[in-house]
Amino acid sequence: MKEKHSLRNLTVIGIMLVLFAALAVLNISLGSVKIPFSETTKIFFGKGTNDTFQELIWRIRLPRMTAAIILGGALALSGFLLQTFFNNPIAGPFVLGISSGAKLAVALLMVYVIGRNGVVTSPAMILSAFAGALLSMGFVLLVSQRIQKSSMLIVAGVMIGYICSAITDFVVTFASDASIVNLHNWSKGSFSGASWEDVGIMAVVVLVTSVIVFFLSKPVGAYQMGESYAKSIGLNIKLFRASLVVLSSFLAACVTAFAGPVSFVGIAVPHLVKSALKTSKPLIVIPTCFLGGAIFCLGCDLIARTVFAPTEISISSVTAIFGAPIVIYIMVKRRSAVR
Amino acid sequence: MTDFFFKTSELSVGYNGKSLISNIEIRLNRGEILTLIGPNGAGKSTILKSITRHIEKLYGTVLIENTATETMSANALAQKVSVVLTDKPKTELLTSEDVVASGRYPYTGRLGILSEQDKAIVTEAMSLVNALSLRNTDFAQLSDGQRQRILLARAICQEPEIIVLDEPTSFLDLRYELELLSILRCLAKDRGIAVIMSLHNLAMAQKVSDYVMCVRGETIAHYGTPQEIFKRELISGLYDLDNGSYNPLFGSVEMAKPEGEAKAFVIAGGGTGIGIYRKLQKEGTPFFSGILHENDIDFQVASDLAAEVVAEKSFCEISDASYNRALKLIEKCDVVINCLSQYGIANKRNADLFAQAKKMGKKIAAM
Q1: Of chain B's two ends, which shows fewer C-beta atoms within 10 Å, N or C?
Q2: Is residue B237 domain-shared with residue B208, that is, in the same domain?
Q3: Pick from B211, B241, B271: which residue ends a domain?
């Protein structure tokens, strides 16, 4: 039986890796300009003959793709942590208003800095997004202490999200022209415009955080048994809960800082991964979630870029189309399980 | 100072700084079972949770082998004390084995990967509770009885020296309850584990415990062996039984005595009458019963249910006084029910009594 389980894990991860590779190739080749596969290979080995293609791949498509991979993984992990924290399968950075809080903070920063002809650096974006995320999370926590029902928690999160979005809109309306253009693209959510410098920063920040999350596998596993049991096997609940809040908010904040709010990845991916692996053991689920998030966002970004090319759809629209039905499915399934 | 394995001294427990129960003194050796009994809301769970450090105790100390638990690290405490709680873990896609294995947490490394030895301990714990067949079943789909066994296995594979259980048998049927408590008894005997638990089933508490603590009011009402605790007045007082009464021999309670003037007399003995007594009680018919020896099982139930019992001293032939008293009661009755079909030396005058009742023209119902 044990062998059967590890066989399943290997199969699932194998399929995911193939999918990942295929999507990566498609992401590089497809777009408003189609690049032949042979040319792509040549460019990768430094033998490219077409300068435009080379430029397009190295300067635009590759960094964008890497951003989608890293941020997708971050979103999925953030979702998984939040679901663990609230013991609720439909918790995620977007539905709980954490992404919107981060968005608001970044918008305020942008308007303020650009209005003074300054330049917003990536670390500043991340930090302000983190502050916004923590603020939203704080509100959600306050609410969750007063109400026990998990469905109400989601409602509270969605409301906080709306409030933050409303204030963001308000700020954007009164912002100067230059920042509006900047903000408008970003606030709808998109992986476009990532530079190698951005990618470098997000890689370091997200990967380090993800490794920390991976090393929390053991306490996360303990916490899945419920707070009382986790405590009885020696888990420091307060410290652990605090680290969950900080880590999940930070991951969500990173994504928002670079790509704006991206919806539903945080709920859909962990659910799909757990169902595929038939377990919620964090030791295997955490790395697979990261991979799953990367694949999900690669796929969605590909669709966002290519379906109506040259016009781009916002990434959130695509993730919502695939992610929202999964959320509905989870809720229906949960209701029938309770009955 | 004798060295008890587990001790509390001047322990006060409660919530939000408000003391609920104070001066709790527990003394327990390895391999002994202590059961907390008492009415709902008396604070049994509060005491248990304070012992396991789930809630802050207000005052006093909890000592394991003379070491105060508050000086232990969470991990060290987890290696000594494991729990079975009333909350049901809401798991998602975790097998029963995964849940049991979580008990190895205090022993595994940073990533919590189980060693071969850990796995062997998990398997052993599962077989101990007869749950090996459930190992690959999703924990969320177990029945109450199965779940409780898995949670006990989880507590066992934590290799504790003390297991604390909060109402472990609450949702279990008779068989599972018996099985669970037998396992606890085995753990205590074979592994020298001290068990502290709360139970509502007094009959089982009486049979399984070495010590019993009655929790009620601001201090511990009583603490002692089952023989000392399970007494009629003590238990009736503990639970405020004013309708119905507790019988320590049976470990159970009878319903309240029917009110009013008795119009029926039940001649019984040797357990023949109990069914009739309970039937009359359900109908609400007051009755007398006799002539019963004080060591007769019918006497136990008749004392609780009959308006008056005509009793004779154990092992003695029925005396004139008893016989006459019984006749007098029969005179007041309309009906005489005879449950006896045979008579021996000690109770042969019951036959005379029945004959007399017939002669008096009473309505007769023989069983």
Answers
A1: N
A2: yes
A3: B241
Choice between A120 and B32, residue whose per-residue pLDDT is larger: B32
The CATH number that applies at residue B339 is: 3.40.50.1220
Binding-site residues on chain A for chain B (CB distance < 8 A): 1, 87, 89, 215, 217-218, 221-222, 224-226, 228-229, 231-236, 274-275, 278-281, 283, 337
Percent share of chain B, pLDDT over 90: 73
Q: Are residues B212 and B272 in the same domain?
A: no
* Residue of chain A with shortest Cα separation from B83: A232
pLDDT digits (tens, 9 = 90+) for B80-107: 999 999 888 888 889 999 999 999 999 9
ipTM: 0.85
**B112 within domain boundaries:** yes
In a domain, B97, yes or no: yes
Pick from B52, B74, B94: CB nearest A224: B94
- pLDDT tens-digit map of B1-26: 468 999 999 999 998 888 899 999 99
CATH of the domain at B45: 3.40.50.300
Name the residue among B82, B90, B140 with its Cβ closest to that of A232: B82
Domain ranges of chain A: 2-338
What is the extent of the structural domain holding B311?
Answer: 255-366
Token representation of residue B179: 């099985």
Tell me whether residue B247 is in a domain: no
The alpha-carbon radius of gyration of chain B (Å, integer) is: 27
Averages of pLDDT over runs of 10 residues in chain B (367 residues) are 84 89 93 94 92 92 92 93 91 92 92 92 94 92 92 95 94 90 94 95 93 89 91 87 79 87 92 93 92 93 93 93 94 92 90 92 80
- pTM beyond 0.90, yes or no: no
In a domain, B181, yes or no: yes
Query: What DSSP designation does B168 have?
Result: T
CATH of domain A2-338: 1.10.3470.10
Chain B residues in contact with A280 by the CB 8 A cut-off are 91-94
Residue with tokens 């008293």: B325
Interface test with A, best of B54, B55, B94, B105 (most A CBs within 10 A): B105
